[in-house]
Amino acid sequence: MFSDKDISHFASLETPFYFYDLTLLQKTLSTCADAAKLYNFHVHYAMKANFNQRVLEKIKATGFGADCVSGGEVSKAIEIGFSKDQIVFAGVGKSDKEINGALDNDIFCFNVESIQELEVINELAGKKNKKARVAIRINPNVDAHTHHNITTGLDENKFGINSWDLPLCAETLKKSPNLEFIGIHFHIGSQITNLDVYKNLCVRVNEFAEWFEERGFTVKVLNVGGGLGIDYHNPEQQIPDFAAYFKIFSDFLNVRSNQEVHFELGRALVGQSSSLISKVLYVKNGKKKNFIILDAGMTELMRPALYQAYHKISNISRVSEPNSVKYDVVGPICESTDCFGKEVELPGTLRGDLIALNSTGAYGEVMASHYNLRENIVSVYNTDID
């Protein structure tokens, strides 16, 4: 995954840092765009996955829209140059300030997650003499078969409007003069690798679209969200199977001639494009455990501590040596949860060796913090290496 030139360059840099392979990113984006184009599907990039400036510029240049979950993300999308008519704003807790900002920018659509939110957007739009386009985010009660903390489509989750509230939702829409209903929205979870899950989602989307049409609503947009996963165990399998993913929706969604199908992909587009590069500070060998202590910690990569997430760990200073020692790979933060992996088999490792934590392009840099007064994490790009 790393060239000799990359590794040689890393040795001259201060660690830790995020290394971005912008060539791989572009190939991934192009593969997705080509697969979506076969069906005239619309893709919005889920900005929460990664809002690195150069990453966003490449995504915008590909022609994708932006899926935002905060007013800050809406503002960033506009700053980068995403077309306003391709920006959607989701989120279960939009503030009045955020809604007003999105209204002022005439974004494409609000993905609305509660009946009370419908009432608030209608009121705020009315004060501006505007009509806000809205899609109703419905909780379809579809199990994404992923980690509990990133499942979003079950009755127990806080996201979306539950099916039993849809009659009141329809009534609220009809009496809201400053709202324009354009469609329905779903997002059942993240890091989904079993594509059969999406077949179940299609069945529910078809049912809810028919429900709204039977009550006199025109459903122009079927927004099925995202959640397509990547292979963290085999990062060399770098590009997800977008063709198989989109074909499921082509095969199982009932799409009318006047309808558009929208997606909100994040991790699948950027996840494999970056690695966290860290240096070994100390090696502690014990009777029961061997520890590698890195200069990167949970402040630079939160996912293992937060989700017990797996990232493949490699000693890139010793790529030609066989694996022979099992280590717990940990960071310097004063928390026991500051651990990247237990019993990780690596070559015999020494102070100063470079360690790569792979597949960190999604929910890596964006979740970094200053806990313990840690410095900002920096980014390095393969296109800048001579």
Strand elements, count: 17
Biggest sheet details? 8 strands, mixed
Q: How much helical structure, as a percent, in the residues?
A: 25-40%
Order of helices and strands: HEHEHEHEHEHEEHEHEHEHEEHEEEEE
Q: What structural class is derived from the secondary structure elements?
A: alpha/beta
Tell me, what's the shape? elongated
Uncertain runs are: 144-155
Gyration radius from CA atoms, angstroms: 22 Å
Integer average pLDDT: 94
Beta-strand residue fraction: 15-25%
Q: List the total number of helices.
A: 11
Distance between the termini: 17 Å
What is the secondary structure topology, with strand pairs?
Elements: H1 4-10, E1 17-20, H2 22-37, E2 42-46, H3 53-62, E3 65-68, H4 71-80, E4 87-89, H5 96-104, E5 109-112, H6 115-127, E6 132-139, E7 161-162, H7 166-174, E8 179-185, H8 196-214, E9 221-223, H9 242-252, E10 260-265, H10 267-270, E11 274-285, E12 290-294, H11 303-307, E13 313-315, E14 325-330, E15 339-346, E16 354-357, E17 378-381
Parallel strand pairs: 1-17, 2-3, 2-10, 3-4, 4-5, 5-6, 6-7, 6-8, 8-9, 9-10, 12-14
Antiparallel strand pairs: 1-11, 11-12, 11-16, 13-16, 14-15
